[in-house]
Specification:
Shape: globular
Bound molecules: phosphoenolpyruvate
CATH superfamily: Aldolase class I
Number of domains: 1
Radius of gyration: 17 Å
CATH class: Alpha Beta
Strand order of the largest sheet: 1-2-3-4-5-6-7-8
Strand content: 5-15%
Helix content: 40-55%
Number of strands: 8
Largest sheet: 8 strands, parallel, barrel
């Protein structure tokens, strides 16, 4: 079933007390929210936030696909699962560009997440140069082919997609409604072609890239946008909750 989701990517921000305060402020909202909320704190806070047993799900921004071993500084998929995370971000453009993660490695992470009952939010998105060359749809569907193209329809049903144009991330420049809907519809069509009508119809496709309390309702009104992956605006409880009430 296609779910409505608002997910906050806290990136490398917040000290421990700030992270707990932010999570508790979000949890204390009395106004009903008609979507599922997820936060992606720095991984060292996952266990602490999970102990609060709140209704907001917790995920990790990064993990290593192996169960254990000599990978100094990494956090394994089984450790992530044991600390209470339910979701994992994979293929975020900052991981791809700064840390050199390839489509092949993203694919390994997706397989590993699925085999540990974690839900991968698979990020995809083009650079400004690719968009200006009008290659954005081919570029993004190729990213999907190389990262999730091998999955079964059942495996796909345990994933979500986040379309995040790189030129919109952290820049204050949001995709227009037409640009967002065009790409989301193209992604959904590609999924239908590869996995069947039902699988494509059922999957949640989130938009990310300078989504905030002022533009979320327009974006979420697009028929193929099922919510948002929010960076900067997720660091403020009031903004994040306002976005969550924008459906
Ligand atoms: C992100 O990094 O996933 C993101 C969408 O960031 P921002 O909302 O700050 O553009």
């Amino acid at each position: 079933m296609r779910k409505k989701i608002v997910a906050g990517n806290w990136k490398m921000n917040l000290l421990p007390v700030e992270a707990v305060n932010l999570y508790e402020q979000m949890e204390s909202s009395q106004v009903p929210i008609g979507c599922e909320l997820i936060v992606f704190p720095p991984a060292i806070y996952v266990a602490t936030l999970n102990e609060r047993q709140g209704s907001i799900f917790i995920g990790v921004q990064n993990f290593h696909p192996e169960e254990s071993g000599a990978f100094t500084g990494e956090i394994s998929v089984s450790q992530v699962r044991a600390c209470g995370a339910k979701y994992v971000l994979v293929g975020h453009s900052e991981r791809r560009m700064i840390f050199g993660e390839s489509n092949g490695f993203v694919k390994e992470k997706i397989d590993s997440a699925l085999s540990h009952q974690l839900v991968p939010i698979v990020c995809c998105g083009e650079s400004l140069a690719v968009r200006e060359d009008n290659e954005h749809i081919d570029f993004v569907t190729n990213q999907l082919a190389e990262t999730i193209g091998h999955l079964t329809a059942l495996e796909l049903s345990h994933c979500m997609i986040a379309y995040e144009p790189i030129w919109a991330i952290g820049t204050g420049r949001t995709a227009s409604i037409a640009q967002a809907q065009e790409m989301h519809a193209a992604i959904r069509q590609w999924l239908k072609n590869h996995f069947g009508e039902l699988a494509g119809e059922d999957i949640s496709i989130l938009y990310g890239g300078s989504c905030n309390a002022a533009n979320a309702s327009e974006l979420f009104a697009c028929p193929d946008v099922d919510g948002g992956l929010i960076g900067g605006a997720s660091l403020d409880a009031a903004s994040f909750l306002k976005i969550a009430r924008s459906f």
